[in-house]
């Protein structure tokens, strides 16, 4: 397998519409930007502990409720429970719904799938109108 170079990634234009795709993912899944980017990081780690989670949060805005919120909303699930003798701590992984959201974001970045605008079209708020226009512009761009 050939190693990817920076020019290969630039030719893919992965980051061309990243901001709009990230905003769409946050608005449709009720996450904030920091939560989504942290979940992307954790998905690449695969299995992690709460300590790994804390290390991953150093570059994001501080939110002491983030861990409990992501667990409660089922973005993070327990992969292996501790048993207080041989396993001293839980091991976690991102949930299937998180993996599906991130995979969908990648497919949209590569142009394999368009972003739906249905959720935003029936809302008259200015931010939703602007977002709908931006999404339509991304969907029209077939060179992404």
Quick structural gist:
With 144 residues, the protein is mainly alpha-helical.
Average predicted local confidence, pLDDT: 91
CATH topology: Arc Repressor Mutant, subunit A
Q: Which structural class is indicated by helix and strand composition?
A: mainly alpha
Low-confidence stretches: none
Q: Can you tell me the CATH architecture? A: Orthogonal Bundle
- Supply the CATH class: Mainly Alpha
Distance between the termini: 24 Å
Largest sheet: 2 strands, antiparallel
Global shape: globular
Strand content: 5-15%
Give me the number of helical elements.
Answer: 8
Give the total of beta strands.
Answer: 2
Q: State Rg.
A: 18 Å
List the domain count as a whole number.
1
Following the backbone from N to C, one meets helices and strands in this order, namely HHHHHEEHHH
Enumerate the strands of the largest sheet in spatial order, edge to edge or round the barrel. 1-2
Percent helix, as a range, is 55-70%
Give a description of the structure.
With 144 residues, this protein is mostly helical. The chain has a single domain, classed as Arc Repressor Mutant, subunit A, CATH 1.10.10. It is built from 8 helices and 2 strands, in the order αααααββααα. It has helices at residues 6-12, 18-29, 33-45, 50-56, 66-72, 96-110, 118-121, 126-140, and strands at residues 76-80, 91-94. Strands 1-2 form a two-stranded antiparallel ribbon. The longest helix is centred in the last third of the chain and has 15 residues, at 96-110. The chain is globular and about 55 Å long. The two termini are 24 Å apart.
